[in-house]
Amino acid sequence: MRAEEGLRSTLRRDVEAVLERDPAARSALEVVLAYPGLHAVWGHRIAHRLWTRGHRLTARLLAEAVHLVTGVDIHPGAVVGAGCFIDHATGVVIGETAEVGDDVTLYQGVTLGGTSLEPGKRHPTVGHRVTIGAGAKVLGPVVVGDDSRIGANAVVVRDVPSDAVVVGVPGQVIARSRPRPPSVPAGVDDSILLAWWV
């Protein structure tokens, strides 16, 4: 009974996340009926349960059906936290060993991909309350810290500290809510870079 209550709470949180983060969402009913990003997350939650219970072929088939309908490709082995919001949905890819924290926002074309053909952890770990902009690629077993923002079309191949803003190819931290560490050159004005990114 406790697991069922937990799943209901997670599904409710997924709907609330859309209502909180998308000003175009007008009601819970609209979100449930007309948001493919939510459909992708919910389909993944079912596929992931099947995957973890050993029904791997069924999980993969369900994940592929969800991919065909929503345009979102989430491997059933990936872990996706509560309140994940995939906005506009199309072209999002989340690999098998990826871990996505709670209240994460992913925009269209985001890839949480691997860089190795070896078994084991090969996809990113994304912290809580992270926002990843359209077309961004986070590749390999990197860690993206809580409350960070990854700019559109950035390519992230190194760990990202918490509370950071990352842009560019390869991704570079351009702002942090904490004081600048001594290893970063003082000549870079974060406020100018941040204004350009936003």
Keywords:
alpha/beta; 198 residues; globular
Short description:
This protein is an alpha/beta fold and 198 residues long. The chain has a single domain, classed as Hexapeptide repeat proteins (UDP N-Acetylglucosamine Acyltransferase, domain 1), CATH 2.160.10. It is built from 5 helices and 15 strands.
What topology emerges from the helices and strands here?
Layout: H1 2-21, H2 28-34, H3 36-52, H4 56-70, E1 73-74, E2 79-80, E3 85-86, E4 93-94, E5 99-100, E6 105-106, E7 111-113, E8 125-126, E9 131-132, E10 137-139, E11 143-144, E12 149-150, E13 155-156, E14 164-167, E15 172-176, H5 190-197
Parallel strand pairs: 1-4, 2-5, 3-6, 4-7, 5-8, 6-9, 7-10, 8-11, 9-12, 10-13, 12-14
Antiparallel strand pairs: 14-15
Helix pairs in contact: 3-4
